[in-house]
Amino acid sequence: MDLYEHQARELFAEHGILVPWAEVTDSPKEAREIARRLGGRVVVKAQVKTGGRGKAGGVKLAADPAAAELTARQILGMDIKGHTVGRVMLAEPVDVEREFYVSYVLDRATGRFLAIASAQGGMEIEEVAARRPEAVARVPVDPAVGVTTARAAEIAEAAGLPPQTVDVLVRLWQVLVREDALLVEVNPLVRTARGRIVALDGKVTLDDNARFRQARWGSGDAGHEDPLEAAAAARGLNYVKLDGEVGVIGNGAGLVMSTLDVVAGCGARPANFLDIGGGASARTMADGLAVILSDPAVKSVLVNVFGGITACDAVAEGIVQALDTVRLTRPLVVRLDGNNAARGRALLEERAHPLIQQATTMDGAARRAAELADAA
């Protein structure tokens, strides 16, 4: 569960990390009053759960309360990577001397957390890592030990951060542990002209398995969630909206991730991540197809299933039955492999739907889905 920036900043403040004064609103008129309370000159920032807000025009400096109202009116309602801006945060500007990047993220491969830090903040960390990999420090953190003051000092030294950041690194680890987070990121973490260390922006992802302990973040937000993700969540689907044109359904997170990579390698962009897990029932397939087909950006759909506990013929039967309740409006490419794959393919051939095509390999299926999306 991703938090909005203003929610992440709230957590930071609760754990003793300095953040600029800020308030959130969905009203341009109220934005004027907030700017007046904050001293007139403010930064107006779109509150959406995606990156790239600055490049999209969702972060702007307003010189006075009247400008704050006008800027809020311009940003509210904007579409940023498929997310509609429903609220803006107005924050007092900060006199920045230096910018840094710090984060903690779960490393599932090793069963540990990874501290990622750089003295080059304020830009995409991927760009920094690509251009100057030596400028990004990656320090493993044993969750049984955590980030002590000594470990924080090691992280700061490895990344070239000033000693003043050590306390913040310790407190950010406390945010991660106490709030059940999988990711805690500050970009930029800045040193002001007065020598204070301040978190100007924040990203926090909480563990969905800990929602019962983090219930305060699950209320009052439905109106600002991505509508497709909200619809999928209501159906119990493991779905994430992406920015492409090829819808993807698979069974197993690893297979779906591989499918996304293969689709991208074929020159297309995946429109979503959708893992139907081990039980591809007719209802699950119908719900998955309904969500994906309701995305106007989708031009073709790829179903990539490896039969194991759930056999391929059961998946095929689910697709056939789903067609009774979901109107297929875009081409559907199906690749079945594994347990009872031949029987599953035969079932789809018997159904003979004009918009369903089959492929025997993942590469072939992805290539065909990309071709169909390009031709649409």
- CATH hierarchy: architecture of the largest domain: 3-Layer(aba) Sandwich
Helix fraction, binned, reads: 25-40%
End-to-end distance:
34 Å
Arithmetic mean pLDDT = 90
Main pleated-sheet profile:
6 strands, antiparallel
Give the count of helical stretches. 12
Structural class: alpha+beta
Strand content: 25-35%
Total separate domains: 3
CATH H-level superfamily of the largest domain: Succinyl-CoA synthetase domains
E-strand count = 18
Verbal overview:
With 376 residues, this protein is of the alpha+beta class. The chain has 3 domains: 21-91, Dna Ligase, domain 1, CATH 3.30.1490; 96-213, ATP-grasp fold, B domain (D-amino Acid Aminotransferase, Chain A, domain 1), CATH 3.30.470; 226-375, Succinyl-CoA synthetase domains (Rossmann fold). The protein has helices at 5-14, 28-37, 65-75, 125-131, 149-159, 166-178, 227-234, 253-265, 282-293, 312-322, 341-351, 362-375, and strands spanning 22-25, 42-46, 59-62, 79-80, 83-84, 88-91, 96-107, 112-118, 136-141, 181-192, 197-199, 203-206, 238-241, 246-250, 272-275, 300-307, 332-338, 356-359. Strands 7, 8, 9, 10, 11 and 12 form a 6-stranded antiparallel beta sheet that branches. A 4-stranded antiparallel beta sheet has the order 1-6-2-3, covered by helices on one side. α10 links the parallel β16 and β17. α2 (28-37) packs antiparallel against α3. The two termini are 34 Å apart.
